[in-house]
Design goal:
Helix content is 52%, strand content 17%. By secondary structure, the chain is an alpha+beta fold. Strand 3 and strand 4 form a beta hairpin. It is rod-shaped and about 190 Å long. The protein starts with a helix and ends with a strand.
């Protein structure tokens, strides 16, 4: 019970201290202070195990003292193990033995073993487990080594009483090993379970963790396997040598027994044996000589009566029966009257001459030699292990450390760092290879940087060329004005904006942001921008436009990109705006007093993300003087050096109260405010704005266009379009009539003669030029035909005499001030001009 209680004290102490180290402020103490406290605690545990947890066997004290310094060193650190070993050894040598009389016979051996336990555990922790937890198997191995040393020291410290020391060694080894092993094993096992890093590990892994044994840590794996190989070599050498010594000793004993019996038989005749109950003179000499060696004794047994006749030692009543049941001249091992003996006999007449030896005496040399061998091997293998560790650390570890330090700098971006480890040829080759690789990498980086710069410039050119950047954008229109800014980030992004008329009084304007960076984003931006233009002219409805653009981008989206967009269509006559939002930032509406409001409404999925996404639109009213400000997330997500975002609140504060109508001033004020906030921090997204103001004024020089189908019924739509335009210029009736006649003649010819069966679009543009002339242009895709090449008809002939054809174009040329034709890009372009009034 004392032995079990002492083991439990060590286990409980390990669990409690480990809990405090990992779950309380105790773990935050300086390592030296923490290990000192732990060492003292385990030192006291060793003292308790010595003085109160011991029991006596053959004059030696059996206890679990060595488990305390081993547990402290393996789990908590080297200094804790050494300190616990010192405390336990000092108490064992100076207090327990001389004062309390505990294990006086093994005083020196036990003290040295306890000190060695702390030192060995500390060394193993420093060399092998600096970054890893010890496993159960490690604790078992270390305790085995310590107890082998412990028991080897007992006979070495009692050479004068080697027999008693050997008995103690044999009887105590098993109990010492079991008690100390269990204490260490359970301490390691329970603390591993408490450790949060190892929760969820199976019991098998807590005992032997294959992932740790086959770790990628070179030093740990090397040290573990070296220790394993040395232990296996030690065990095999010890076992084979012990078996060999045992066999040689038994053969030697058998040979000597045969020789001694032969000598005795030759020296003593059978007659003298019968005549003398006691020793004959010859027998006395021989018996005395051999007995003086203390190795054997001889007795005579009468074959007839089986009674002992001659012996020098005490009487052994079991001997006649043992001899009777075994063959002569053969060495046997047996127990005679409770004593282990090695017995051989021979027959001479009626007598059996028995030569017997005590097993403990004969095998002592074998046992003692094995102990000496074990101690010597532990010393040699221990020194070898330490030397290999030191050499590995100095010759390999340190050089690898210097190489890794240089590699850390290189991987952190310092390509000017050089590896300078040239002490050995292998490391010299490695250093040269690394330096050469880095130099080559620098060249490739330089080339790649140049290529990237070229791509960057190309992407910027693509992006900038796609963005309209001439302002005012429509100088002949007074109903509105707009202005846009674009500031690219370090990497080319996909921001873009656009604006164009989809009808003579319907202005489409949009802002968008493509996901991704670089050339792919720039190309996807171009595709998106083109799709908006195509489908805006076709549908003229914001929701339908987004729906068509989404399906087009989804179908041609190999790169998996997407676009956020905000699209508005302004009626320049009324100020009404139809808007749709595809996952983009909400724009601001700024009234004439500088008050800001978000333009809310339905927000749908981004473009290109999912096929057949439904988009909705809404209408809002702009009054003269009111503005819209559109922007991308590069504005609100701009961050400063403290990683703070600019955000919508700063955006609102920046624009609130801004009453001016100069859109350029508003836009540049916002960009300047963002840059001031950023304060030089690197930006990773474009900053784009589009500002629009509705003025509500009629334009005197507005440029309008309309597209119609090449069908006769479209003529009414064209004349209404032209009449609406001419109302603002107070044209007299005659001018309007002449223009309508010319339109009728020209469009009818296009419908009748330009196309066969298929129907195409015809585009009509109207404007007033600098000479105050109405300019109307007809653009069609019909086959090439110049009506001005037709010969003028002879007007002096009667109607019956005139040829059919040519009269209509003749009338147009007479009524208009100027008629021009050109064929360009597979389009017929006919322009008529008429002076106002």
């Amino acid at each position: 019970m004392p032995l079990v209680f002492a083991s439990l004290i060590t286990i409980a102490l390990a669990v409690v201290l480990f809990y405090f180290e990992n779950r309380t402020k105790f773990g935050k103490l300086h390592p030296a202070i923490k290990q000192t406290i732990v060492g003292i605690c385990f030192g006291l545990s060793a003292v308790f195990a010595t003085e109160l947890g011991s029991f006596d066997i053959a004059g030696a004290a059996i206890n679990a003292r060595d488990a305390a310094p081993v547990t402290a060193g393996l789990i908590f650190g080297p200094w804790a193990g050494v300190l616990a070993g010192i405390i336990g050894a000092v108490d064992r040598f100076f207090v327990a033995a001389p004062i309390f009389g505990v294990g006086v016979y093994t005083q020196v051996a036990c003290s040295i073993a306890t000190l060695f336990a702390g030192v060995l555990a500390g060394l193993v922790k420093v060399t092998i487990f600096r970054k890893h937890r010890p496993m159960v198997i490690h604790g078992l191995i270390i305790i085995l080594l310590i107890e082998v040393l412990h028991m080897s020291l007992v006979p070495l410290t009692h050479i004068e009483d080697i027999e008693q020391a050997t008995v103690i060694m044999i009887r105590c080894f098993g109990l010492l090993l079991i008690s100390n092993s269990l204490a260490v094993i359970f301490s390691i096992f329970l603390t591993a379970i408490l450790d949060a890093k190892y929760k969820g590990l199976s019991i098998k892994k807590l005992v032997v963790d294959k992932d740790l044994i086959f770790s990628k840590d070179l030093f740990y794996s090397f040290q573990f396997w070296l220790l394993f190989i040395i232990i296996v070599a030690f065990a095999l050498t010890l076992i084979s040598t012990s078996v060999l010594l045992d066999s040689v000793t038994r053969k030697s004993t058998e040979y000597e027994s045969q020789r001694d019996l032969e000598i005795f038989v030759n020296m003593v005749d059978e007659e003298s044996l019968r005549e003398h109950v006691n020793f004959s003179e010859a027998a006395q000499k021989v018996s005395y000589y051999w007995s003086d060696e203390g190795e054997y004794s001889i007795m005579l047994i009468d074959s007839k009566s089986n009674n002992r006749i001659l012996t020098k030692d005490i009487e052994y009543s079991d001997m006649p029966g043992i001899v009777e049941n075994n063959e002569p001249n053969k060495l046997i091992e047996c127990n005679v009257n409770g004593v282990d003996m090695m017995v051989m006999y021979t027959v001479k007449g009626d007598f059996k001459i028995v030569q017997y030896r005590l097993v403990k005496n004969e095998m002592f040399i074998s046992y003692f030699s094995t102990m000496i061998l074990a101690f010597t091997q532990i010393t040699i293998f221990g020194c070898l292990l330490i030397c290999v560790f030191v050499l590995l650390k100095r010759l390999v570890g340190n050089n690898l450390y210097y190489i890794n330090k240089s590699l850390e700098k290189i991987t952190a971006g310092d390509l000017d760092e050089k590896v300078n480890v040239y002490k050995f040829e292998e490391f010299s080759m490695l250093s040269n290879s690394i330096n050469s690789t880095v130099d080559t990498l620098k060249e490739y980086i330089k080339l790649e940087a140049n290529r990237y710069n070229e791509e960057f410039e190309l992407a910027q050119q693509i992006q900038l060329s796609a963005l309209p950047n001439v302002f005012p954008a429509f100088p002949d229109r007074n109903e509105f004005d707009l202005y846009a800014t674009y500031k690219s980030a370090k990497d080319v992004g996909g921001d873009f904006y656009d604006y164009y008329f989809v009808r003579h009084n319907k202005l489409a304007f949009l802002i968008a942001d493509v996901s991704g960076k670089g050339i792919p984003a720039a190309m996807f931006m171009m595709r998106s921008k083109m799709a908006f233009r195509i489908f805006a002219d076709k549908f003229r409805d914001s929701a339908k436009i987004l729906h068509a653009v989404n399906n087009y981008l989804y179908e041609h989206n190999e790169a998996g990109m997407f676009v956020t967009a905000w699209l508005g269509i302004l009626d320049t006559d009324t100020g009404k705006v139809q808007v749709s939002n595809a996952g983009h930032n909400l724009p601001f509406k700024i009234d004439v007093d500088g008050n800001l409001d978000f333009v809310t409404g339905p927000i749908s999925l981004v473009l290109g993300g999912m096929e057949n996404t439904k988009y909705r639109n809404m209408e809002m009213q702009l009054h003269p003087g009111e503005k819209l400000l559109l922007y991308t997330d590069g504005i609100t997500e701009a961050n400063n050096n403290e990683k703070e975002l600019y955000g919508e609140k700063r955006l609102i504060r920046c624009l609130s109260g801004f009453k001016g109508n100069d859109l350029k001033e508003i836009s540049e004020h916002l960009i300047s405010n963002v840059e001031e906030f950023v304060d030089g921090a690197e930006q990773f997204d474009d900053m784009t704005t589009l500002a629009l103001i509705y003025k509500g004024e009629k334009s005197k020089n507005k440029h309008m266009k309309i597209e119609v189908k090449a069908k006769t019924k479209s003529l009414t739509e064209i004349t209404n379009f032209v009449d609406d335009y001419l109302k603002d210029y107070n044209c007299n009736f005659e001018t309007i009539e002449n223009i309508n006649v010319a339109i009728d003649e020209i469009f009818s010819n296009i419908v009748k003669h330009g196309y066969d069966d298929e129907t195409k679009d015809v585009e009509i543009e109207i404007k007033v030029d600098e000479l105050n002339r109405i300019v109307i242009t007809f653009i069609d895709e019909a086959k090439k035909f110049n009506p001005l090449d037709i010969e003028e008809p002879d007007t002096t002939l009667s109607a019956e005499e005139c040829d059919i054809g040519g009269l209509g174009i003749f009338m147009v040329r007479k009524m208009m001030d100027e008629v021009n034709y050109e064929y360009k890009d597979k389009h017929n372009i006919l322009t008529i001009k008429k002076k106002i009034n």
